[in-house]
Amino acid sequence: MLKFSKTYFLMAVGLFVVEIVIALYVHDRLIRPYAGDFLATILLYCMVRSVVSIRLKWAVAAVLFVSYLIEGLQYVDLLGRLGLQHSRLARIVLGSSFSWADMLAYTLGALAILMVERLTRPAGPAPTSQRPRMQLER
């Protein structure tokens, strides 16, 4: 069901800015390759949750699938097959080489989402006996 969430939208925008800064200005062996991929999964999650009301487990599964799919496309050299291997933008957005460490970073990002959501969300609905009952008008 489509439902806009200002909170998730603002988090997605913030993470997008962080990802751009990492992609353009960070050229190290830790933050760019691993933290960027870790945050990419969280960014995708926030993007999805900003426009779709979906159960936590399905949202996390979907964004993890997309993350894995993008990494798999790197394995089959999608950019080379499309003639985009020299495009800086394409390499920044889709990446250029497969890495199992990236898969781990995506997985850890998904686990972080689950952990944070479970810690910050209110507990499930009250037991049936404590729920207010609807009264029918007569």
Automatic annotation (TrEMBL):
Pfam families: DUF2809. The chain crosses the membrane at residues 6-27, 34-52, 58-80, 92-116. Keywords: Membrane, Transmembrane, Transmembrane helix. It comes from the Bacteria. The keyword Repeat does not apply. InterPro entries: DUF2809. This is DUF2809 domain-containing protein. It comes from Hymenobacter glaciei. The lineage of its organism: Bacteria, Pseudomonadati, Bacteroidota, Cytophagia, Cytophagales.
